[in-house]
Known about the structure:
Layout: H1 8-18, H2 22-34, H3 41-59, H4 66-96, H5 104-115, H6 117-131, H7 134-150, H8 153-159, H9 166-174, H10 176-183, H11 189-208
Helix pairs in contact: 1-2, 1-3, 2-3, 2-4, 2-11, 3-4, 3-6, 4-5, 4-6, 4-7, 4-8, 4-9, 4-11, 6-7, 9-11, 10-11
Amino acid sequence: MVASGKSIGEEIQHAIKQGRHIQEQVRDITLAALTRGELDGAAMRKVAGEVMKNVQEAASVQGTRAKEAIAEAAAGVDQALAHAAQALKLSIEEAAGRAQQFSSEDLAKARASLKDLEQLFLDTLRETARASRGAASSILDDLAKHAEASGTAVGRQLEQMSGLSGQVAQAGRAHFEAGMNAALTSGAMMARVASGVLAGIAESLAEKGKGRPR
């Protein structure tokens, strides 16, 4: 996960410069950023955009390794958004049994955020490409075209949403109540609850990744 005291840019720069496990590290950095606030469409778009902007900047000095680094990092963002989809799905399922605590508007926003996740990822790649120059712009544009044609991790996750793996569901549900408690001090109940659920999923992934060289 993101080291304490370090910015997203510093973490991304370290991961790209190190050149090992870029996809997993960028996934973890993105997940950590997503769990800091409310998990809604606006927040996810902001985080994904910030991560990809820093990826492009960090990879621009990598020379021949730039294409590989950007592709791996983009896959990491894609994976993080797929886990965000899991968190939103699980939150909506759990909230359905507690209708008195969630407004129909809150649930509708959560469902809209879930539905739009793949488009959000593709838009982020295209927007980063437009804001970039030289080789990075071409690399990102090609990635966006390839992702649209061949599919994305978040898109596949959305297609397979009929059920969640036992481990993911268990990790998410363990944090549902914590998310509920945090949400009581926030106006956006579902977005805050979903952030708590995602934190549980992120912790589960971190446990699986322990021992990975950094």
